[in-house]
């Protein structure tokens, strides 16, 4: 009996020590896990901050719009876009869209939107490769291919389009709203194709500078990056393709 009592007395401190060690180990693991998550978040956030820069000088949204309209309404540029550049740009856009059709990102039955379409060369190119249900959006309309609208607040219902294309991401003052509206108006499983400049800076009407694809991956939080490749598209060097997730819940920008 005494031996049993003595053994019990000896075991109690050992059990207490074991519990103490296991508890300490548990809290150490939790602490290290939290520190790791904080590190990863800060690292990713710093990448986003470093790899996209909004250019200074826009004290109001109206000032930003006026600056963009200065280019879009320029009579000399509009004449060039509808004469000298018209067929050349349609041919280049048609080549891009034909490749996307071969890769099954686009089909003749797709309902398509071109964002920042100006005079609508990309819309015309889509129609020439067989995607007839296509429309463009720009601050200044150019019927019948381009209607008036702000890409920060698209005038379309949720889940309207199968395919959206844009080569004006660098003109977005609020990249999160630009992308948010694309994801809102794309159907689940829909495709967004962006042409962006990574290796060179864009013109004086550009509002942001993008230095890698990483910020786009963060912004397209309801979509999967399908592919990214080099292209030669009127000064833009990279094509990025996203597919909207089928379970995404979206909210309209306010």
Automatic annotation (TrEMBL):
Top-rank taxon, per record: Eukaryota
InterPro entries: Methyltransf_11, SAM-dependent_MTases_sf
Gene Ontology molecular function terms on file: S-adenosylmethionine-dependent methyltransferase activity
Keyword Transmembrane helix found: yes
CDD domains, per database record: AdoMet_MTases (cd02440)
GO BP, one annotated term: alkaloid metabolic process
PANTHER family: F21J9.14
Identification of the protein by name: S-adenosyl-L-methionine-dependent methyltransferases superfamily protein
Source organism: Artemisia annua (Sweet wormwood)
């Amino acid at each position: 009996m005494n031996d049993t009592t003595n053994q019990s007395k000896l075991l109690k401190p050992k059990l207490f020590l074991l519990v103490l060690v296991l508890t300490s180990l548990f809290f150490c693991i939790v602490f290290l896990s939290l520190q790791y998550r904080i590190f990863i978040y800060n690292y990713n956030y710093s990448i986003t901050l470093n790899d996209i820069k909004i250019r200074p000088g826009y004290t109001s949204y109206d000032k930003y719009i006026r600056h963009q309209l200065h280019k879009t309404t320029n009579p000399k540029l509009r004449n060039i876009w509808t004469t000298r550049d018209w067929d050349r740009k349609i041919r280049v856009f048609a080549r891009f869209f034909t490749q996307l059709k071969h890769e099954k990102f686009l089909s003749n039955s797709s309902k398509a939107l071109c964002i920042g379409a100006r005079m609508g060369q990309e819309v015309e190119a889509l129609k020439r490769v067989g995607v007839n249900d296509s429309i463009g959006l720009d601050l200044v309309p150019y019927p019948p291919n381009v209607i008036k609208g702000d890409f920060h607040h698209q005038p379309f219902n949720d889940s309207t389009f199968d395919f959206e294309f844009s080569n004006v991401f660098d003109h977005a003052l609020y990249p999160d709203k630009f992308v948010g509206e694309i994801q809102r108006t794309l159907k689940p499983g829909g495709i967004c194709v962006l042409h962006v400049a990574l290796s060179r800076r864009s013109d004086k009407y550009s509002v942001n500078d993008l230095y890698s694809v990483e910020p786009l991956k963060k912004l397209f939080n309801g979509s999967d990056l399908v592919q990214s490749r080099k292209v030669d598209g009127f000064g833009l060097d990279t094509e990025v393709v996203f597919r909207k997730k089928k379970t995404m819940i979206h909210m309209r920008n306010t």
